[in-house]
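Retry 2 of 3 after timeout on previous attempt. Resubmitting structure tokens to design endpoint.
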């Protein structure tokens, strides 16, 4: 725990030095005694560490500790400092080097993980074939990881023709991950990539299948990449036929996975990509260290 705290403090310090002048327009002040409110940089550093995987901890435990929503909000808090546009006076090489330094800064020694529960997950379906005793799973390059919906009550509105209607209002926050074309580079020995999606199979005995689905995770292992975070807002458009005013905000984290796995509640790797033989020669493979 002491080592983790020291690493977290080191990341927060490095982020403060690099981004302090570009987050909220001024450097983050040094906390005074009794100060309790963390700065956006402190929050981002804590979020990054909460969603990273220590090789000494099994992946299931790392997933149970992770919080993708916290990661997205933490990156959003320092967004002005980590999503700079290319200057017209900056060469392509200079801009690429600036992005490289940001990526190095935001990725600690341990890889970042994005975890999806296996049970009742429409964004990463995982269904059992009892005849063959295998799970059939799939995922896409852009996925929703967490969703919050807040009911905001109702109000009375009128159409242009003067017709009154009561409209229910709500706000929906989607926290998504964008993995780009990285899935296309996954080994064909692990599964099948087609049209931005990946399908795979996991052999599991029928008696063990319910627990695997109820408590297991699909885990992506990799690193944060530029532009790191993006936000898109869509206001509601209620009608007489559909009197629901739903304001939507999508926060998207940009992430490049190098490995993926299905892990059981005991930490056992039930499926992995690259496969065990390939993971042995995969530089920096977390899955190799988990075995």
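Retry 2 succeeded. Sequence:
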């Amino acid at each position: 725990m002491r080592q983790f705290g020291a690493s977290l403090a080191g990341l927060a310090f490095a982020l403060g030095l690099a981004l302090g002048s570009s987050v909220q327009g001024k450097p983050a002040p040094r906390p005074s005694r009794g100060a309790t409110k963390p700065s956006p940089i402190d929050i981002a550093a804590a979020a990054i560490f909460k969603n990273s995987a220590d090789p000494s901890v099994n992946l299931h435990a790392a997933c149970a500790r992770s919080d993708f929503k916290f990661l997205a909000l933490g990156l959003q808090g320092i967004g002005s400092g980590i999503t700079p546009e290319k200057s017209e006076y900056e060469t392509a090489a200079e801009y690429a080097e600036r992005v490289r330094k940001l990526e190095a800064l935001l990725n600690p020694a341990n890889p970042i993980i994005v975890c999806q529960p296996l049970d009742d997950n429409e964004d990463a379906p995982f269904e059992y074939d009892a005849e063959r005793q295998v799970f059939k799973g799939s995922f896409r390059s852009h996925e929703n990881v967490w969703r919050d919906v807040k009911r905001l009550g109702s109000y009375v509105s009128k159409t242009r023709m003067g017709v009154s209607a009561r409209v229910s209002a709500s706000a929906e926050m989607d926290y998504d991950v964008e993995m780009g074309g990285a899935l296309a580079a996954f080994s064909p020995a692990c599964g099948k990539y087609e049209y931005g999606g990946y399908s795979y199979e996991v052999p599991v005995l029928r008696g063990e299948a319910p627990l695997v689905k109820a408590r297991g995770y699909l885990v992506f292992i990799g690193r944060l990449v530029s532009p790191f975070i993006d936000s898109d807002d869509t206001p509601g458009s209620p009608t007489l036929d559909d009197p629901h005013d739903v304001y939507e905000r999508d926060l998207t984290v940009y992430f490049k996975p190098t490995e993926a796995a299905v892990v059981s509640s005991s930490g056992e790797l039930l499926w992995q990509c690259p496969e065990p033989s390939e993971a042995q020669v995969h530089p920096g493979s977390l899955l190799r260290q988990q075995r």
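Attempt log closed. The two ends are 23 Å apart (CA to CA).
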